[in-house]
Specification:
Radius of gyration of chain A: 26 Å
Radius of gyration of chain B: 31 Å
CATH architecture of one domain in chain B: Up-down Bundle
Order of helices and strands of chain B: HHHHHHHH
Strand content of chain A: 5-15%
Largest sheet of chain B: none
Order of helices and strands of chain A: HEHEHEEHHHHHE
CATH topology of one domain in chain B: Four Helix Bundle (Hemerythrin (Met), subunit A)
Number of helices of chain B: 8
Largest interface: A-B, 25 and 18 residues
Number of strands of chain B: 0
Helix content of chain B: over 70%
Number of helices of chain A: 8
Largest sheet of chain A: 5 strands, mixed
Distance between the termini of chain B: 75 Å
Distance between the termini of chain A: 79 Å
Number of strands of chain A: 5
CATH class of one domain in chain A: Alpha Beta
Helix content of chain A: 40-55%
Strand order of the largest sheet of chain A: 1-2-3-4-5
Oligomer: heterodimer
CATH topology of one domain in chain A: Diaminopimelate Epimerase, Chain A, domain 1
Structural class of chain A: alpha/beta
Chain lengths: 314, 219
């Protein structure tokens, strides 16, 4: 009976190891983002130059390092069956712009295919960055360049103006922005394997090693005296007893996580092309990774928005 | 022999002494086991009805509060957003009135809708607020379109600002109200099932209105 139980435990552990390996292998595909959260510009419409992207990134990193605020620019040709407000809401929350404790992100959404744009901000900036303020910035900085198709100039000026407003909100000298704009942009370590995948792969490898060792461990008496068995010798038995103990404890009901915002009936409708699923959806908040030292580059802080904002005035 | 084997019982603890004293003072019928069982059943029912009903009433109160008073960490609330929207609407109506004339039909219609909102809006009646808000939004949309066509650059800028403020507030209201509606529907489902429906009736924990057209309201 004991042998049967041990065999069952070994098979269970082996199966778990296999599942972990499969999950680790599958993780990159499941988490493939339509939004790169580790950069301040996602130019899917390909209307911005590399210089503009660097400029925006440097401004955003400067703000990020001083007050946690972040400005993100997202471009796409079309937003499909959604409203500009709804799409911007989904993007900002998926991106996690701004710090999690201040919700001070700002998103500039540019949709050249529909000749439209929109700006929204996090919940913590609604009072400081009023609709009127943002509307004025768009009218003065973005619109004149938008009509001529000079998206780079319009974007840079708009981001600069928003950044200056944020500086005044948080009492930061605007020279911070000037210094950041002149400094070379540090390449963020984006594009590598996601930390979640690394942890899973490492865990799977360790589990596999343990399984192999426990399967190959000697069964009969060894050359020397065996240590006394105290409820199970070795990690294999310990794992088995741990598993039994877990099974015998009454289970707490597990409630499904709340649905991600913007993916159900709402004022924004259903997006299509779907708004991006970045690190902020269905997984750990991006702010938890690499959040210790922010000076290394742009890292989304996990901020959120209630929605609202202002768009192009016809 | 029997007397020698008879055991003497010693009561330990002051609590048992008190209970013993109380028991001695009870009338004879009350000392009987069936009576004690009956009292126990009665106490159980009171506990269930009392505690269960209180919880239902508390659930109703907390759910209703999501719509009527709850604020986030920044002080934002659904009612606060309504107030912001109403302010923007009021200013937009005035600016539009300067552009189109106060006697303009669209101006009058919007003003009437705003007056109705101000007069009857009650945070405890989401369905009523829904109707009033829908009417006001429609009137503001029409008025903005009409006035923007006629306005000069300065007035157009003002109208744009105010209209953006209004629509922005509406966007957050719709989203927050959708969240409230989910909670209200979950509550209404809870109290429609037995025995919650009995307890709800006893404790006055009636159904909650949703922020939706009246014909879709539960209860």
């Amino acid at each position: 009976m004991k042998q049967v139980i041990q065999q069952l435990a070994r098979r269970t552990v082996t199966a778990a190891a296999v599942l972990c390996l499969l999950a680790a292998g599958a993780t990159p595909a499941l988490a493939a983002p339509e939004l790169d959260p580790n950069t301040a510009v996602n130019d899917y419409a390909e209307i911005l130059s590399a210089q503009t992207e660097e400029y925006v990134e440097s401004i955003s990193v400067a703000l990020q390092d001083t007050c946690g605020a972040q400005i993100g620019v997202y471009t796409t040709d079309y937003i499909g069956n959604s409203t500009m407000e709804g799409y911007a809401y989904d993007v900002l929350n998926a991106w996690g712009l701004g710090s999690a404790d201040k919700d001070n992100g700002v998103l500039l959404l540019l949709v050249p295919g529909e000749d439209d744009y929109y700006v929204t901000r996090g919940a913590g900036l609604e009072t400081q960055l009023t609709i009127s303020t943002l509307g004025t910035i768009l009218d003065e900085e973005l619109e004149p360049n938008w009509v001529t198709g000079d998206y780079d100039t319009g974007t840079q000026q708009t981001v600069r103006a928003i950044a200056e407003k944020l500086c005044s909100v948080y009492g930061i000298p605007t020279s911070t922005l000037d210094n950041a704009a002149q400094a070379p942009v540090q390449q963020s370590s984006s594009g590598g394997i996601s930390p979640v995948a690394v942890v899973l792969i490492l865990g799977a490898v360790l589990l596999a090693v343990f399984v192999i060792i426990s399967l190959n461990s000697p069964r009969g008496p060894g050359p020397g005296p065996r240590p006394p068995r105290s409820g199970g010798g070795g990690m294999g038995n310990a794992l088995f007893w741990y598993g039994l103990g877990r099974a015998s404890r009454p289970r707490r009901p597990r409630y499904p996580p709340p649905p991600p915002p913007g993916f159900g009936p709402g004022p924004g409708g259903f997006g299509g092309p779907r708004p991006p699923r970045g690190g902020g959806f269905g997984g750990p908040r991006p702010g938890g990774f690499g959040g210790g030292g922010r000076s290394g580059g742009f890292r989304p802080g996990g901020g959120s928005s209630r929605g609202g904002g202002v768009g192009r005035r016809r | 022999m029997q007397l020698e084997q008879q055991e003497t019982f010693t009561i330990h603890g002051p609590q048992l002494e008190i209970l013993g004293e109380i028991e001695t003072k009870l009338p004879q019928p009350a000392k009987k086991r069936p009576v004690a069982a009956l009292v126990l059943v009665g106490l159980t029912l009171v506990s269930v009805v009392g505690i269960g009903g209180a919880r239902l009433a508390g659930l109703r109160s907390s759910t209703a509060r999501v719509y009527s008073a709850q604020q986030d960490e920044y002080g934002h609330s659904i009612q606060g957003d309504f107030a912001t929207g109403a302010d923007a609407a009021a200013s937009l109506i005035r600016v539009a009135g300067n552009v189109l004339g106060q006697d303009d039909a669209d101006v009058q219609t919007a003003q009437a809708a705003l007056d109705a909102w101000n007069a009857q809006s009650d945070a405890g009646q989401p369905a009523v607020q829904y109707e009033l808000n829908t009417t006001l939004t429609g009137a503001v949309d029409i008025l903005y379109t009409a006035a923007a066509d006629e306005a000069d650059a300065k007035a157009k800028g003002q109208l744009d600002d105010l209209y953006s403020s209004y629509t922005s507030a509406q966007a957050t209201i719709q989203r927050a109200a959708a969240d409230y509606n989910q909670k209200a529907e979950a509550y209404n489902e809870t109290i429609s099932a037995f025995p919650a429906n009995l307890l709800a009736g006893l404790w006055g924990a009636d159904s909650l209105q949703s922020f939706a057209p009246a014909d879709t309201i539960n209860g």
